[in-house]
């Protein structure tokens, strides 16, 4: 139950980040909602397509869809107030990312995916929404060149997979994976960690 | 039978809009055909992936694929003549959009999707081709920021789902949904309706 | 066995082209790896989604994923040396493209897809990685407007489908399709073949 509420919090945080980008791009109200909804539930939809879950859970579930849509509408109307909440949104987004990475890996394992596939599918669930967001608004995905975002997601998924292989129950694995991914992400934001770029010799 | 012919008309109208964008971007003949074909049958492919219909109908069906390819080739060779048919293409496109929204919702219901999922999948079938078109040619999807396009599609799908829930036969639902979506879209074009953008305080 | 090794060579060549594009765009090390891995195994993932193979082979297979990741890392660290191997990479890429087109068509036929669908799915497996690469780094896909790339892929897939329909064994069909696609691609590179663009009357 707590996990379910946290998942909705994650969807809301993702949707808020998508809708804010839509506002920045001056899309109309529907465009803001589409980008927000895709960012909120897109990662879960891609995860379900990869795992043969039809139709994807988030498309058929009112709480998930409603959370993403409601958050996008809130952002559209209140974005100037929300811009002061930027820090809080980043924290929620980190928690959401950690949750998607861990639950994605657990769901993949439950559907019989191999350890490698489960780790990659968990990572995809966590970062898919952000990639869809940036492709839709015609930007090079942020997480490809600026943010340390996907490494924490993959490490969280990997921890879930490894602890399941070692026989831990799904709940312990979920909590450990979520904590690892979210804390690493918050540390990266706080300490301004970033990855090296290629050495270009002009 | 009439519905099937109208579906091919819709595919042709979508493919024509995709191929015209390709011509504007000065792609070569193959690029124009790829963008045209994707725009024509892309929405149906995404719908079938979401519904677990493998391989997607449009990939395995000569009439659908041939219509999309033939239309794209026609546009490539005759685009200067066709640019005078812009108005007619917009009308056909509105009818195609309405048909895809309604048939998508009916097919989703038949495959056991929930009412919410059926409505969203119908909307996706109607707008998916246009989004793929704009992502491929590296534009922010038109329907996110200028056109009133997706709201009529979603309303058409929703009408189909609601009337099916109320016990109407699929044919009546199909006709009502298609008419609603297409007429709204044509009214939006004719009256130049558009949605409000976010109020940006500089 | 030889075919399997050649498939890994194809994945490596695709991944190298993706990672090189990532380096050119000055992505960080993770971004270069994501673009490289997507380019290397993306075509196969899309093929498996279209054919209902879950989870996609390349996501669950260490050799495929490891080859793509390892090649991307090599490119990241050694890209200045590799830029002198541009010609060799293009040859390997042509062989990989031919192999993906042929194996994609054979796998589709084995999964009961119609001849048309098998031909299109083989072509998609061969060009999907390159399209994902260019969409991720925010370019109009190269193969839509400059390179003669997809026509050889589709002809290779078509040859596989036709020879299977005529009763040849899968091995002969695979070799013939791969050879046709790869040789056409190399000829196109060598003779600088390109397709006509639309005649624009200003």
TrEMBL record, chains A, B, C:
Family: Belongs to the UPF0126 family.
Cellular component per GO, a single term: plasma membrane
Taxonomic lineage of the native organism: Bacteria, Bacillati, Actinomycetota, Actinomycetes, Mycobacteriales
Listed name of the protein: Glycine transporter domain-containing protein
Membrane topology: Multi-pass membrane protein
Segments crossing the lipid bilayer: 6-23, 30-50, 62-82, 89-109, 172-190
Highest taxon, organism lineage: Bacteria
Species for this entry: Rhodococcus oxybenzonivorans
Domain Glycine transporter: 5-79, 91-162
Cell compartments where the protein resides: Cell membrane
